[in-house]
Amino acid sequence: MTKEHDEANNALVCSGNSSRCAQIRLVASDPEVYEPCDDSFALVDALLAERANLVEFKPNLCMEIGCGSGYVITSLAIMLASQGRTGVHYMATDLNEVAAQVTCKTLEAHGVHAEIVCTDIASGLDRRLVGMVDVMVVNPPYVPTPEEEVGCHGIAASWAGGEHGRRVIDRILLVVQHLLSIRGWFYLVTLTANNPLEICLMMREKGYESRIIVQRSTEEESLHVLKFWRSKDSPPQRESNTANASSDSSYFTLPRWAFWRGR
Amino acid sequence: MRLLTHNMLSSNIKGVTNGFPLQLEVEKMVVKEVAFNGDFLKNIFPKIEWKALLDAAVAMGCGDLPENAEATMLDNEEFLRKFHHALLQLHLEEGALICPETGRRFPVSKGIPNMLLHEDEV
Fold first, then answer.
1. Which of A7, A96, A123 is the best mutation test for B, with the most CBs of B within 10 A?
2. Which end of chain A, N or C, is surrounded by fewer C-beta atoms within 10 Å?
3. Is ipTM over 0.95?
């Protein structure tokens, strides 16, 4: 066991496999902030499934857009630290000022640190942070809602996604492409209603491959956690319209039936 | 807020072309110890606007950084320690970030900068 591992465990004051991610009893809460729920757990499970890859990947900068309670970014920081990956810088943003404060408390309760900025997606960071983010994690507001509910203040902003739940997701996709480093990885939670296949095809046009890391159905919703990364032979963006002629089947690893939802 | 974050933030007000660096208004700063990691510093160095870091460090009461810095200095342990301290250990806890073009104040409270814009600024 490494020294870092010991320290991480001491900081957590817990034992066993619960030290792999944030503990619910230490996650701060507020009526105005989205609490960790099935979608948060699916995203953390995806990161845990990717743990060995992430450790080997050696990210310098990890970022979460829409950190809410802080459960996900805290879990990522704990997971990498417990594997001896120190010297990683963590950042997180949220539109909700209360969420930004709650995330700080959750991080502190677990003895880890992330820099929090209260902002819309990554506004204010989008000029200087270009191409710097190695790991981006996003559990976006994906619930289909009337357009007027999108981006309002308070807790509704954490789920209200407008038409097909895509209103905020589509804005986030543009920002993420901008901020991701050349080797960067991007994890995104989506709902079947968001049309994840279309999201993957849109990202493919920009030169990103994709894969489903976690697929989960509950009575209420069917969730996918998608991973995106830049294709090694990614075409320059202005030529991307001709990319559909690619004969390399591994270039796009998502089968079309992957998002079919049977009942 | 670490000065690394300050170095990555610009004024996001619509129409502002010269929004970097934001000036620091320091009400309360704290020093928080952070584990030293030379590799991280070497990786991040090319992305740092040195003058902005230097001025921010001075505003926080730390005058240890050299006027200019270049990659060759990263082999110098003493330089790395100073860089580490300014970039990661100085935290702005309470205060504000000021847009250099418009003078708009972005408040920093409990260490969290608030970059949310009013409707007429988006």
1. A123
2. C
3. yes
